[in-house]
Write a structure and sequence with these properties.
Length: 210
């Protein structure tokens, strides 16, 4: 089963994965039409199989379509168009429309992140300039994630991922980026509350880029 928690930037980068938002609902409806009529009753399996189908069609990034805010389907994510099988699958039509909207919302979020990453090119040399750019970018990205997730349950996991993606975008090895950001955050962010400014500053300053 594919989960969005472990997506690398190479897998999530919209620049390398073409996408036509206009055709998404048709793709989702075609998936449902090809399923056995009683398959919808096993809602978790239906969601899992839709995830596999979307990832096959569009790329692994599509696994994030059900990464809902708060305590939703996967939980702690940035998607508001989908909640969970209980609330988003009261009928096949509702499920199909919500799934299509959720995939488009997730894609739009990735595109916003990519644009912001590109606005802050990380210098390859000069540690002082490198940290200055990192500091500015990280503060903006944390604020973006807080706003997109509503700082709900476990929002900080996606925040850690986004900061790691930014570093990976600018050629920091993926494993190195994840480890460094994870150590910098180190339990300083909490569920259900946005981080105070001093905590954000502390987290950013804890990661000194070589």
């Amino acid at each position: 089963m594919l989960y969005p928690y472990n997506l690398t930037w190479a897998e999530a980068d919209p620049a390398t994965h073409p996408f036509d938002a206009a055709g998404v609902e048709g793709v989702v409806r075609a998936f449902h039409s090809a399923m056995p009529k009683d398959r919808f009753e096993d809602k978790v399996a239906w969601c899992d199989e839709l995830t596999e189908a979307l990832a096959t069609r569009y790329g692994p990034w599509a696994s994030g379509w059900r990464w809902a805010r708060d305590e939703g389907d996967l939980g702690g994510g940035p998607v508001s168009a989908w909640c969970c099988p209980r609330d988003s699958m009261k009928s096949p039509d509702q499920a199909l429309r919500s799934a299509a909207s959720a995939l488009c919302e997730w894609r739009a979020w990735l595109e916003r992140l990519a644009a912001r990453f590109d606005e802050h090119p990380l210098p390859a040399t000069d540690p002082v300039a490198r940290h200055r750019v990192w500091r500015r970018a990280a503060i903006e990205l944390i604020a973006m994630v807080v706003d997109q997730t509503g700082a709900g349950d476990a929002w900080y996991a996606h925040c850690q991922q986004v900061l790691s993606w930014y570093l990976a975008r600018w050629d920091v090895p993926d494993k190195t980026a994840r480890k460094a950001v994870g150590k910098a955050i180190g339990g300083r962010f909490e569920s259900w509350v946005g981080p105070p400014e001093d905590v954000v500053t502390e987290v950013v300053e804890r990661l000194r880029l070589a």
